[in-house]
Amino acid sequence: MSIILSDIITALTSTNIPIETSVFSGKAPDEYIILTPLNDNYPNYADNKPIQEIQSARLSLFSKSNYIALKNSISKLLLDADFTITDRLYVEFESDTKYHHYVIDIEKIYQLEE
Q1: What CATH number should be reported for the domain whose range is 3-111?
Q2: How is the chain split into domains, by residue range?
Q3: pTM confidence score
Q4: What span, in angstroms and rounded, lies between the C-alpha atoms of 77 and 83?
Q5: How many CA atoms lie within 13 A of 67 on its CB side?
Q6: What is the pLDDT along the chain (114 residues), one digit of tens a residue?
Q7: Pairing of β 19-21 and β 31-41
C-alpha cells in the first residue's frame, strides 16, 4: 500500500466509515469510501536526485443518504492532516445502486530519505 493511502486511512479513522482500495469487497454498507492511487512525481531535485515526492489519490465517497455533511467533515479531516485537496466533484446519483457518488482528489508532499 502506498504511503498516501495509509495516511488517508489514518486521517479518517474517526469517521468509522469502511475504507477499501480500488473496489469494495463484500456487501457494501450505506456509506463507504474507495481509495484509488493516482500518481507519484518528483517536483524538486538536488544534486540530480529527487528530494520530495508528491503522491496523489482519489477518494470516492458513496452514500445512500445526504452526503454533504459527511464530505465536509472528511474534507476538514484531510486538511487537518496536511493533505492538499485538488478537486471535489459530485459524480452522479447511481440509480441502479441508489448511491450518491462524490470524489475528493488529494495530494501530499513527502520528503525523501537522503
Answers
A1: 3.30.2000.30
A2: 3-111
A3: 0.87
A4: 9
A5: 25
A6: 588 999 999 999 999 999 999 888 888 899 999 999 997 666 656 666 767 788 999 999 999 999 999 999 999 999 999 999 999 999 999 999 999 999 999 999 988 876
A7: parallel
